[in-house]
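I had to read the description of the data format several times before I understood it. For illustration, here is how one protein appears when written out as sequence plus structure tokens:
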Amino acid sequence: MRVSASTLVAGLPLLRRIVLAGTRAGFDGVLVHPAAGPAELVAGTPAAPLASAAIPRAWRRIVILPANVVPQPRWLRALREVKLAPEAVWLDASLTAVFETGHPAPILAAAAASRDADEAAAALRRGVLEPPGLVDADGRFPLAAAADVPAAERWLLRSLIKQSEGFMSRHVERRISLALTRRLVGTRVTPDAMTLVSVGIGLVGAAFFLSVSPAFQLTGALLFLAHSILDGCDGELARLKFLESRRGAILDFWGDNLVHAAVFGCIAVGWSLAIHAAWPLALGAVTIACTLASAACVFRRTMLDVVPGAGATATDRIAAAMAHRDFIYVVVALAALGHVDWFLLLAAAGSPVFLLLLLWVGAARRPA
């Protein structure tokens, strides 16, 4: 069976996915060939029909994408930004064509007159032909038939794994959350709904730490882990379906930190009740205060999927490593032994150090 514009790929019609990816990549306009598919597939998007669109003279970079290619926004962004010689053409194996031109109207007119990607490629192969390999081909997935859709969806899901994640998060939690997301992406479940479910489970889990019973503490730790896994699903759904929003990011970030504060607080209260002393409450208060202050420091950084690279300082890399949530597995292990209070001791000692480190990094980055 051939692929059509309405073929669903990870919960979105293929044509709509292409248009939204182009918009997310930062193109000034996205034009759709009249034969690509019904207009209702791109309703509510900035897409315009190719035949009737007025072509601004300012357009110099033209990317023509076949309707059977599933693109990543980062790949389209690379096509938009890669340097080409004037009046050059770059054509890859999927028949995606990139033009650098001062005369976009004839190119788009030829594309509009073509019946398919092969005909368009033949009509537009002109000027200076740039060599292949300028842009990494891993950023797009051509669909030869509808049977390729499951492989394309797996490819999209793998792309959601952030390079900055911790070892356990990448190899354990992401495997589970991506499997759940794959089943949820075709439903009406929204990213915000998943955030609220995740926070609710985390808060329920926190209450189990009010007891010093190993069974209760292990139940709480497993619910805390379930919260962390489901917390990945909301972002995965948002990125797969182009539903990212500042409101959703804020809800996700502070909901996550609310759960952390609740867990630390309940561990402190449970420990205090068990030994009939108030000093564990002080440990909990220090941990919560430093955790929330650190959250405020890294809030902007959590909005970006940035990996410290060659230009990053040692303190940047340490801060990024300490922000990983692999500590949840330490909570699970200690809870199984009935000594989750040991984790509070570690957190009360480590959270001020982490806060001071973040403040140091922030101060070092301020301009003189």
Observations:
- The chain has two domains: 8-152, 160-365.
- The longest strand covers residues 61-64.
- Residues 8-152 form one domain.
